[in-house]
Amino acid sequence: MTHIRKSKWIGLGILAVALAACGSNGNPTEEGAIPIVVDDFSVIADGRLNPIESAQLSFNTGGEIGAVLVAEGDSVEKGQPLVRLANREQFEAAVAAAGLERIGAQQALDALYENAGSMAAQAKAELANARDDLDDTERKWRNQQEGQRASSTTVRAAEAELALAKEAMEAAERQGNKFSSDDAEHAQDYKNFAAAVQRYRLALSSLNWYTGYPTEIDQAVIDAEVALAQAREADAERGWEDLKDGPDP
C-alpha cells in the first residue's frame, strides 16, 4: 500500500510540471539573446597595378612631338603609328643624309678591301725606311760623342798629318819671309805658302774634330733627331700592324 501511494504522488507531480509547461505561451525571453553580425570581409590597402606586358617606345632621332595619334585606352595593331614628330622635312633630310653617309662608308670599305694588298706593302716599305733612318740617326749620335768620332788609328793618322802640314808650312815660310803676290819672281813661293797654311788648318780642324765632343746646342739637335726618328719608326710599326693581316672581317 505504501508503495502504491508513493507512485501515485510521483505521477501527480510529473503531471503538474507538464501542465505548467503547457500553460506557458512558448515565447523565448529576449534577455540573453546573441546579436547576429554580418561581415563582408573586405580589406582596404594601397596597391599598384602593373600590366603583364609593356614596352618603352623611342625615336631614332631627336625632335619635338608634333601629334599623338592614339588616345589612352585605345587598342592598337602592330605597325600602327602612335606618335608623329614635328618638322617632318627636317627629319627626312636627316634620314637622307644618313643614307648618303652609309653609302660613303660602304664605298670606303669596298676600296679598303680592294686596296688591302697594296696598302700593306706600302706600310711594310715605310716601316723598313723608318728603321733605316733610325739606324742612321743613332749611328750619327754615337759618332758625335766624345771618344767615338774616330778610331785610335784615325786619330794617330790625323796627328801625323798635322805634324807634316806644320812642317811644310814652316818650310814654305822660310822660303821667303816676305812674300808679295805682285812679285812675279816670288809668286809661286807665295802660292806654295798659302797652300801649306790651308793644309795645316785642315789637319788641325780634323784632329780637333776626332778628339772633341759636340757643343750643348749640337747635342740637343742630334738628341731631337733621334727622338723624331724613333717616333716615325713607331708610327710605321703601328701602320704595318694594322694592315699586315688585311681588313677586319
Characterise this structure:
By secondary structure, the chain is an all-alpha fold. Among the domains are: 103-149 and 215-249; 150-211. 62% of the residues lie in helices and 3% in strands. It has six helices and two strands; from the N terminus they run αββααααα. It has helices at residues 2-23, 88-114, 116-144, 152-175, 187-211, 216-243, and strands at 65-68, 83-85. A two-stranded antiparallel sheet has the order 1-2. The longest helix has 29 residues, at 116-144. It is elongated, with a radius of gyration of 60 Å. It starts with a helix and ends in a 6-residue tail after the last helix. The model is unreliable at 2-12 and 14-24 (pLDDT under 50).
First-to-last CA distance: 132 Å
Number of helices: 6
Order of adjacent strands in the largest pleated sheet: 1-2
Judged by helices, strands and strand pairing, the structural class is mainly alpha
The helix content is: 55-70%
Give the strand tally: 2
* Assembly form of the protein: single chain
- C-alpha geometry: elongated
Largest sheet, if any?
A: 2 strands, antiparallel
Succession of helices and strands: HEEHHHHH
Strand fraction equals: under 5%
Uncertain segments are 2-12, 14-24
Overall pLDDT: 78
Radius of gyration computed on alpha carbons: 60 Å
Could you write a compact summary of the structure shown?
The chain has 249 residues and is an all-alpha fold. Among the domains are: 103-149 and 215-249; 150-211. Helices cover 62% and strands 3% of the residues.
